């Protein structure tokens, strides 16, 4: 008995010693080095014992640091080598810290115990070192959404335990590495790998036959949006485990290998936008196939394949522009799960018969075919489009099926809570609680459905995520999934809000754990393929903790109470006087109640904006009545009203809990108070009172450019008016970039943020997301990616480095909208690719007729159209350095307008010199006049004189 007692005592003593053991000295030195070189680290990184003191994000086993979990912590740093000294590391997750700008050093090979490396959404650059192949235990490697360059290291093939390889959304180039006699390592050696995610890089060359082997366990082969050429190797049919194949948006060619039909577990097949030829492959027997897209290839002309009607699991079939001909079999519409059929731009003919057994949510797009009849013309319930078919030229055609269907981009249903007023920047959760959610976007590489409004899919995703969070003890109250969208890369994007439970904010550990769960993805989700998560910078990471020394507090309280007692009577009089003084100050200071902590910084610094009281604006909008509401958005609503001497204004009123928030309000009011240009919407004033944030702008009567181009505003724009509008908007942006000091990057240039006044003069609006370029000398601002899908600069999207060329890219998309009247992304296809394909190599304006706005007529009759398109395409070049400046865009549009203006209104160019009040020259620039319109000169926010040279 005594011996047993002594043994137990000895074991207990050992455990106590371990519990109080100091962290390994080498690990302490490495962490302290990180602490001295990185910024925004957790405030509790104090003391000499990281393990014993439970530093946030640091997990230990005995005395060694084995895990660093710091996802989404706003970290900033330019060196990574200190991490390599933590040789006991097993897991490392630094995802969603865009302030980490470093190279991945060769010394990473020291982390021999590492199994998981997640660096998604940071700013790492340079080559991936060959030494990364020296991590024998690595299972999960994700370097997505950085700026890595150079080739894929062949040494990755040495990672024989690797299951997940994600190098997507970088700038990697070169060929796909495989093993050979001279290079024993290559991706073909990764027999345990289930995921190859290499999309959105600059990989080129052929896909090696040796890449795919029958002894592989690969389920996802994702190579889209690269520059690969040649044929798909027949060896791909030997990988029986494959479930998803993505080779879309490359330059692949030749016939598709018949061996694809051997992949009986295949669920999703993306092969669109290549140069495939030969026969459409026979996919009979692939009974698990949900999603097929072979659009925009060069297959041989053929009848509709029989296998179209045999795939019982099929939800989505996209075969646009694939030379299909003949009648459409009725059996195809009887597939039980079918949601979308897109067969536009083919030569399908005959009379369409859809039967009576189709799904109620089925969408069918048969635009631009040769269909002459419709059996169920008077009685059908699906969404069908037969525009540009012979049937729509007859007397019996109906607007219902002869018009182009509108894409439903409405958000998913939100909370049904009763009216609840949340505090500023708080959001109402689905469970009717006000809090600060952790927010970001889920980017899905693949998905097996196309009905984005079908709640069944999102309920499954919601349930899976909630169960994963709760299983790991994360205090999550609820989730919100909104705004499903297909982005420019044909990925599904869903906005995710994760709401905290028991309090209104998440702590640092919860934020990093949520990020790790989402980006490590140790779970499958039915109907959804692999994804990555990019967050918005979380508002509410905890700061330094305040002392809680009870003795000090008690002593101070006793002494303080005696002091308060002595000064109470005298203070009563002083307080009364101060109250009177404060009331007088508040009346003259509209930001007297501004809280720097809650309102994201110091009081706004304004230059001349007028303050309006809440009562003033309430009165001039008839108590913000719906009859005066002229627009709405995520920030709130816009009302029309009259102030002063009947000046008509637009009042932008932010709603509580909106996405606008204090940051955007402060940004917009500070910028707009100092901007004065005829092509930028003018700020009249503001209101900051009674919890209200309102901006008062000049009223622009003809609405947005988008509404005018599409005809929603009630009138159409001819070619000359569109050129004038393009010039106005370009001048406004050029002023922001080149004359404002410091320069301003708009960050959300789009057709709905360009407004037209009574004379159709264009004005740039909405500066809530704008950024000052500052005087850093770098030419860019590193910031979280924000903007609007379809207009967003791909280089900014991937690097988080915002430049003035980001606005140029967005403006290029607007120019293409002006010409085509199409949305930036329509039917899953980006307008840039659409116009690029239409242009071809002919330089013949008639080649643009298929994309030009029909109301403009033939492109060959539009003076300067080809130069206009070339200008737009130069603005949307992939590399920002190859795009023109906005000043160069202005000059080119002026040149194009000379071609379009009639002889009696020819433009004459003059050079002007901008000078300060003392006549000293500041800069010179060009302007144009016509005989009927006179001079049109942009001006800055400071006084100057103009001289003709």
Sheet with most strands: strand arrangement: 1-2-4-6-8-10-12-14-16-18-20-22-24-26-28
In round numbers, the mean pLDDT is 82
Determine Rg (CA atoms, Å). Answer: 31 Å
| Strand-residue proportion | 15-25%
Organism: Salvia divinorum
GO molecular function: ATP binding; protein serine/threonine kinase activity
Main location: membrane
Transmembrane segments: 550-575
Per-chain topology:
Blueprint: H1 2-19, H2 25-37, E1 58-61, E2 64-69, E3 76-77, E4 91-93, E5 99-100, E6 116-118, E7 125-127, E8 140-142, E9 147-150, E10 164-166, E11 171-174, E12 195-197, E13 202-206, E14 220-222, E15 227-230, E16 244-246, E17 251-255, E18 268-270, E19 275-277, E20 291-293, E21 302-303, E22 316-318, E23 324-326, E24 340-342, E25 347-352, E26 363-365, E27 370-374, E28 383-385, H3 399-402, E29 427-428, E30 434-435, E31 438-444, H4 455-471, E32 476-486, E33 492-500, H5 508-520, E34 531-535, H6 550-588, E35 610-611, H7 614-620, E36 629-633, E37 636-643, E38 647-654, H8 661-672, E39 683-689, E40 692-698, H9 705-710, H10 719-738, E41 744-745, E42 754-756, E43 762-764, E44 771-772, E45 781-782, H11 794-799, E46 801-802, H12 804-820, E47 825-826, E48 829-830, H13 831-839, H14 865-875, H15 886-900, E49 908-915, E50 921-930, E51 934-936, E52 945-948
């Amino acid at each position: 008995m005594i011996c047993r007692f002594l043994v137990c005592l000895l074991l207990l003593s050992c455990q106590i010693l371990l519990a109080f053991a100091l962290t390994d000295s080498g690990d302490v030195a490495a962490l302290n080095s990180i602490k001295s070189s990185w910024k925004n680290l957790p405030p509790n990184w104090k003391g000499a014992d990281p393990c014993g003191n439970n530093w946030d994000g640091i997990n230990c086993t005995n005395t060694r640091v084995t895990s660093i979990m710091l996802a989404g912590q706003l970290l900033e740093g330019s060196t990574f080598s200190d991490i390599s000294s933590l040789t006991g590391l097993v897991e490392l997750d630094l995802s969603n810290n865009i302030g980490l700008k470093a190279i991945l050093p060769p010394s990473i090979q020291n982390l021999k115990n590492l199994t998981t490396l997640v660096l998604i959404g940071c700013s790492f650059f340079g080559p991936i070192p060959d030494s990364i192949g020296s991590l024998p235990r690595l299972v999960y490697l994700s370097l997505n959404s950085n700026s890595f360059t150079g080739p894929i290291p062949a040494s990755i093939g040495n990672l024989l335990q690797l299951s997940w390889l994600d190098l997507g959304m970088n700038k990697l180039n070169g060929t796909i590495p495989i093993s050979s006699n001279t290079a024993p390592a290559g991706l073909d050696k990764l027999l345990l790998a289930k995921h190859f995610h290499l999309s959105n890089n600059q990989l080129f060359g052929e896909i090696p036959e040796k890449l795919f082997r029958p002894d592989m366990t690969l389920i996802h082969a994702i190579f889209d949006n690269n520059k690969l050429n040649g044929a798909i190797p027949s060896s791909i049919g030997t990988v029986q485990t494959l479930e998803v194949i993505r080779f879309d948006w490359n330059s692949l060619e030749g016939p598709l290998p018949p061996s694809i039909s051997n992949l009986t577990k295949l669920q999703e097949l993306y092969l669109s936008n290549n140069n495939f030829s030969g026969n459409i492959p026979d996919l009979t027997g692939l009974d698990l196939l949900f999603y097929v897209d072979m659009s925009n290839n060069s297959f041989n002309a053929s009848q509709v394949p029989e296998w179209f009607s045999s795939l019982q699991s099929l939800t989505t079939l996209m075969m646009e522009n694939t030379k299909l001909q003949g009648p459409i079999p009725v059996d195809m519409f009887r597939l039980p799960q079918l949601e979308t059929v897109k067969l536009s731009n083919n030569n399908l003919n005959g009379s369409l018969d859809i039967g009576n057994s189709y799904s109620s949510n089925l969408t069918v797009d048969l635009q631009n075919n040769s269909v002459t009849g419709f059996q169920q013309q008077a009685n059908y319930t699906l969404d069908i489009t037969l525009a540009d078919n012979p049937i729509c030229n007859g007397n019996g055609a109906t607007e219902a099926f002869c018009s182009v269907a509108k894409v439903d981009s409405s958000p998913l249903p939100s909370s049904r809570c009763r009216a609840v007023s949340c505090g500023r920047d708080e959001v109402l959760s689905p469970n009717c609680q006000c809090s600060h959610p952790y927010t970001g976007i889920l980017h899905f590489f693949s998905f097996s459905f196309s009905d984005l409004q079908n709640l069944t899919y999102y309920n499954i995703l919601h349930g899976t995520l909630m169960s994963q969070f709760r299983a790991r003890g994360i205090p999550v109250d609820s989730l919100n999934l909104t705004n499903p969208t297909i982005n420019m890369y044909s990925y599904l994007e869903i906005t995710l809000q994760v709401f905290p439970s028991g309090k209104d904010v998440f702590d640092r550990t919860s934020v990093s754990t949520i990020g790790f769960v989402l980006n490590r993805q140790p779970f499958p989700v039915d109907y959804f393929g692999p994804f990555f998560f990019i967050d918005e910078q979380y508002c509410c990471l905890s700061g330094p903790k305040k002392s809680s020394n009870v003795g000090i507090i008690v002593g101070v309280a006793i002494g303080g109470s005696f002091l308060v007692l002595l000064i109470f009577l005298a203070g009563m009089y002083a307080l009364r006087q101060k109250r009177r003084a404060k009331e007088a100050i508040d009346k003259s200071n509209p930001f007297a109640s501004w809280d720097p902590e809650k309102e994201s910084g110091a009081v706004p610094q304004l230059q001349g904006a007028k303050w309006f009281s809440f009562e003033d604006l309430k009165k001039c909008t008839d108590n913000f009545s719906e009859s005066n509401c002229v627009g709405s958005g995520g920030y709130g609503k816009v009302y029309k009203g009259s102030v002063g001497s009947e000046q008509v204004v637009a009042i932008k009123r932010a709603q509580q809990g909106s996405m606008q928030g204090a940051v955007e309000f402060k940004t917009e009011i500070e910028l707009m108070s100092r901007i004065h240009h005829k092509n930028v919407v003018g700020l009249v004033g503001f209101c900051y009172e009674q919890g209200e944030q309102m901006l008062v702008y000049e009223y622009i009567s003809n609405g947005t450019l988008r509404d005018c181009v599409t005809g929603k505003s009630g009138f159409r724009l001819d070619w000359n008016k569109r050129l004038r509008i393009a010039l106005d908007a370009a001048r406004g942006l050029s002023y922001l970039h080149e004359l404002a000091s410091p320069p301003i990057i708009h960050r959300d240039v789009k057709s709905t943020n360009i407004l037209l006044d009574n004379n159709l003069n264009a004005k740039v609006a909405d500066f809530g997301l704008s950024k000052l370029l500052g005087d850093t000398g770098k030419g860019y601002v590193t910031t979280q990616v924000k903007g609007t899908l379809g207009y967003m600069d791909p280089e900014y999207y991937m690097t988080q480095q915002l430049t003035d060329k980001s606005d140029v890219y967005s403006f290029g998309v607007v120019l293409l909208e002006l010409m085509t009247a199409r949305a930036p992304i329509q039917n899953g296809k980006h307008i840039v690719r659409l116009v690029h394909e239409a242009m071809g190599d002919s330089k013949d304006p008639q080649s643009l007729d298929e994309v030009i706005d029909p109301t403009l007529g033939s492109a060959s009759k539009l003076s300067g159209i080809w130069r206009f398109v070339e200008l737009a395409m130069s603005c949307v070049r992939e590399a920002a350095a190859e795009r023109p400046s906005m000043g160069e865009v202005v000059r080119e549009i002026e040149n194009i307008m000379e071609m379009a203006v009639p002889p009696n209104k020819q433009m004459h160019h003059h050079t002007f010199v901008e000078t300060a009040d003392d006549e000293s020259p500041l800069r010179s620039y060009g302007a144009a006049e016509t005989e009927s319109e006179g001079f049109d000169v942009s001006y800055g926010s400071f006084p100057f004189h103009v001289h003709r040279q």
